[in-house]
Structure formats: C-alpha cells, structure tokens
Write a structure and sequence with these properties.
This protein is mainly beta. The chain has a single domain, classed as 4-Layer Sandwich (Double-stranded beta-helix), CATH 3.60.160. It is built from three helices and 15 strands. Strands 1, 2, 3, 4, 5, 6, 7, 8, 9, 10, 12 and 15 form a twelve-stranded antiparallel sheet that branches. A three-stranded antiparallel sheet has the order 11-14-13.
Length: 228
Amino acid sequence: MDQRMVAGFAPAPPAARMENHGPTMARVAMQSGNDLFARIGSMVAYEGFIQYESNPTAMRQAVAGRLSGESVPLMKCQGDGLLYLADYGADIVCLPLQNDSLSVNATNVLAFDAQLEWGVQRVKGVAKFAGQGLFNLGISGTGWVAVTSRGIPVVVDCGQSGETCVDPDALVAWSTGLEVKGKRSFKASSLVGRGSGEAFQLAFSGQGFVIVQPNEDSTDRLNAQPQN
C-alpha cells in the first residue's frame, strides 16, 4: 500500500490526556493507575494493553439513574496505551475540569476520568416547570470529560452574553456555578395547530458556559396533541 494514501489519517503524538482525533472521535492516553469510565460500547480501537470491566459502583449509580430517567451504562477502562472512543458518528467535545463542576445530559456522556466525583442530581429551580423535575449527571473535580453532540455544538460564555435561554432538548451540558431557572414563552408553531402555544426553556446566567447541540429530541413534538 502506498503510505502516502493514508498519511493524512494517521494519529499525531498525544498532546493531552484526552483530545479529539477528528470531530467524531476521542483519543485517551491511558496510564496505569489513571482509570477511565466510558459509555459501554464506545470503544472503537486501542493500542497497547487496556482492559475493560463493568464497575460495581458505576453500575449502582446507573441503576439509580434509571429511577430518574437518566441511565448511564458505564464500563471501567484501565491499562497503558491509546484508547479511541466514538458514539455512532456524533461530534465529541473534550473538556478539562480544574476543580470545576459540570452538569451533563446523561445521553451525552461519553467518558470521564475515574477520579472525578459523579452522580445523578436534580436540577434546582426548574421542578415547577418540568413536572417531576429535571435530572442530569453531575461531574466535579479535576480531570477530563468527553461529551457528545448531535452536530457541531455551540459553546456559549454566559458571562459575556448575559442571560442565555436554551431548549432543554438541545442542551448538552453547563457549568453548575450558573444560576438556572425555567421560563415559558409563546411558541409561534401554535398558530398552525401544534402544541399549546407555550414553550419551556432553561435560562442561564452568571459565570460559566453552556454547550448546545444543533438538534432536538423530537419525542415531545411527535407525541404532542393539537389543542382545540
């Protein structure tokens, strides 16, 4: 094979613990004693010696998540080498946390360092708008997190933009230091018989960022019944 034909796809030497190899693949530099939690089935390749196992603690938290609708099926990865992760061609964002806290939609969690603290948490301040409340996966500490996005996401710096309002179905993650509240607004689609005329959003303000994907879960729209 002519090596020049594939040279452009060869991985560059690692520059960080976790980084992108193209927009839809994450590469993790694995080292003994520096374990990783990754979504089950996300491994697409690895170099070196890396082992995978279901972690009892992680699985208990996954079961707790199912009770709130936020299931996170995880495996524990350990060893030495390079680990490549992907999620059916979704875009991937690798985030370094420095004593930070992040709230992530469970369906967008790809991987995170095992030393980080994590667990299912209720999003404060939105229960009266979202019925039983909104649950996310809270991740905090110092380490790396990889999240997925259905399309190239936008990362909004709320400290620069003032209040930022996001459709919950398009929301990927946000800094937990932000103030969050629910809002309702008139929805123009009600003029053609779709929905009740009100849309629910989450409004963020303060110092931190919000990650938004250019895609929404269509379940609510498919299940919505026209109002007379």
